[in-house]
Amino acid sequence: MSQMVEIRWHARAGQGAVTAAKSLAESALQEGKYVQAAPEYGPERAGAPLRAFNRISDQPIRLHSAVTSPQVVVVLDPTLIGIVDVTEGTPEDATIIVNTPHSPAEMRKKMGLRGRKIFTVDATKIALETLGRPIPNTPMMAALIRATGLLKPENILQQIEKTLGKKFVAKVVEGNLQAVKRAYEEVKGE
User: Fold this and answer.
1) Distance (Å, rounded) from C-alpha 24 to C-alpha 30?
2) N or C: at which end does the chain have fewer Cβ atoms within 10 angstroms?
3) CA-to-CA distance for 186 and 179, rounded, in angstroms?
4) By C-alpha distance, which of 127, 137, 128, 107 is closest to 119?
5) Whole-angstrom Cα distance, residue 73 to residue 8?
6) Which residues pair with 53 in a beta bridge?
């Protein structure tokens, strides 16, 4: 990576986007990258739209502001599409990753996208089957890694195990690890 990569996460409160942005930053830090992770929300209740941001670079990051022209956008809740302009500020070569059972071609048509790479994965289904709860953040981290190649997948797995192992029982940690592995394999792109 010769340049700084900016990532914007779109989700609803309670879906784990802020946690995912922090975990992604910690994983990048393990790889010797310079990182930033920041949420953007107010006193939201569960279900309210929110955004989170990452910057990842091989060089020190001197910019300290919201991400306005992200090269990567991760949409944890597809119901935000049409309510929020998830592609706002993205360049033509941006990568858009959407949690949906629909194909990339279907999402491209639905979103009216030209240019940009689009990837989809049914992260909610994966989360329900591996965790028993519809929290798509860890599968979406895996989809981001697969779609962009920004980080090594094994570092994401190690970070999740380390972070969640401090807060949750082994069953929850294992479910998240399985969700990551499945999403990494099941993501589709065009």
Assistant:
1) 10
2) C
3) 10
4) 107
5) 5
6) 8, 38
Q: Which domain holds residue 167?
A: 5-189
Q: How many domains does the chain have?
A: 1
- Interatomic CA distance for residues 53 and 159, integer angstroms: 18
Strand partners, 36: 55
- CATH code for the domain in which residue 91 is found: 3.40.920.10
Burial class (CB in 10 A: 0-12, 13-18, 19+), 90: buried
- More confident of the two residues 155 and 44: 155
Which two three-digit tokens encode residue 149? 């190649």
Confidence check: pLDDT of 22 > 60 = yes
Tokens 């990567």 sit on residue: 72
Q: Which residues contact 78 (CB under 8 A, 6 or more apart)?
A: 98, 99, 100, 102, 107
pLDDT digits (tens, 9 = 90+) for 71-128: 999 999 999 999 999 999 999 999 999 999 999 999 999 999 989 999 999 999 999 9
**Residues 45-49: contacts with CB under 8 Å, at least 24 apart:** 45/13, 46/12, 46/13, 46/14, 47/12, 47/13, 47/14, 48/12, 48/13, 49/10, 49/11, 49/12, 49/13, 49/80, 49/83, 49/84
166: which 2 tokens? 């401090």
Return d(Cα 14, Cα 64) in angstroms, integer: 26
